[in-house]
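Researcher: I'm comparing several assemblies side by side, and this is the next one on my list. It has 563 residues spread over two chains. Same procedure as the others: predict the full complex and return the structure.
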Amino acid sequence: MKRKYIEEKVVHLLMIFSVLTVLGFVVSVIYSVFQRGIPSLSWQMVSQLPGGGFYIGKEGGFLNAIVGSVYIVGSATILGLVISIPVVVYLNVYLSASSKFGYIVRLVYDILFGIPSIVYGAFGFTIMIFFGLRASLMGGIIVITLLIIPIMVRSMDEIAKNMPHDILESSYSLGATKIETIGVVMRQIAPAIATAVLLSIGRAIGDAAGVMFTAGFSDSIPTSFTQPTATLPLSVFFQLSAPQIEVQNRAYAAAVVLTIIVLILSLLGRFISNHFSKNKV
Amino acid sequence: MFLLTLASLLLVVIMGVGLYLKSEPILSQHQLSDLLLSSEWKPMKNQFGFFPFLMGTLWVTMLAILIALPISLLMAMYLTEYARSYVRKYVYPLLDILAGLPSVIYGVWGTLVIVPWVSNVVAPHFVTYSSGYTVLAGGIVLSVMILPLLVSLFIEIIGNVPDDFREASLSLGATKWQTTKYIILRKTSPGILAAVVLAISRTLGETIAVLMVCGNLAIVPSSLLNACYPIPALIANNYGEMLSLPLYESALMFAAFILFFVVLIFNLLSRIVLHRLNTSYQ
């Protein structure tokens, strides 16, 4: 056999091996977390607040972290949509495709997307000190909102950019103004909005470094915006560093809950972009 | 709408300026070269040497790229050039899952699987004892975290090479791999470099996962089996006590500023290259 055919075979095998390696990583991550966490997962864990001796292994659950995460992620998602949808509309309806300003804005969003959440956290923290705020629900919401806006803008813009221009033009030719045309655009990018929301929820719920500074941690469910708030990733992280095995078990149980949420979100996201997307990418 | 768009541009500027102003006190008291090249980290004695943390970050990042680059490049080539479409249909969701898992879960996985593996399987061949919380563990965990990013960037870059090139090469009798090696790889090399830079900037900022598996000792690592203490872990670990000393806070904000600055430059360069590449065939 010629050398080039042998090389072909070897490389092909290596490629398949690399795919299998990645598959192995996925299975290993999920299996190890589930295998360690599911035995400690119970109804009590997800439905109760930490009890008196929670951190030395007594009764209680991590409902505080679940509710805290829901508060932060829910509010941040809504705020993020309110800010990012106008930006996407502006980029795609008001600016032409070759606009220099549009290019710069997209570049900046790419950069914002790349900035690590710990930097967002540190930045949020300096701002909060500046205004004399303490670690609170509000701080967490603000930082997570800043964190997910680039994700939302980028993923919606990706679809909106590929929207056929004829749609805009037929709307204009019927006498519609730019404002009225927004309705048409929104219909077009509706699946993208759904994917963007799922993506951001996934990223927001798993983020620990950003909320560590700004939302703090607490054993109770916050009742106002100024109280510190627990989140799931931090609850995993803090409990895992405890010496008692019972407390560590809870960390693994919380990790299972977090993994399940993220798995559902990512499968749902794939499903939506496969089935409802008008412009297949 | 215009104002909202403009505000987002300003956010980058405000972040940069804000973090710089916060790190001003330490910059005015210490030489920049002292801060970056000294290894003495004793905040209580007013000694802030970032060298161990910079080296820790560098080691972990390089290792992660070394592991992730061949795997992701081969995988992207396989998916774009070789695989049938049904294979792609099953592999893409896997990448989604890897990309979506929070870093704290990777940290848990690292402590459950990788750290014991390093401690029990790898380390005994080389040293008498290692806890497993090492550069090696950090590098492996980080490499898995950046795999999905690299693969999806590579797929996009390779997908942009026009089919004419492939057909021309194949019609001359080249095998698929020869085509991939001499045409695709050569055509996409600037893009691959840009993607790697982007992945580096992602690993630089990873916090919780490295915090959980790297061991967090402020030493300059000399082998893969040493513990290390990357910059994000430093920030995250000390934010609680930093308010006790004004300079301490300033030092940590300076660390955040370094991260911000490096990531900003890396992102800017690689995004511009990627954008040029994506539009060059249109």
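Model: For your comparison table: The radius of gyration of chain A is 23 Å.
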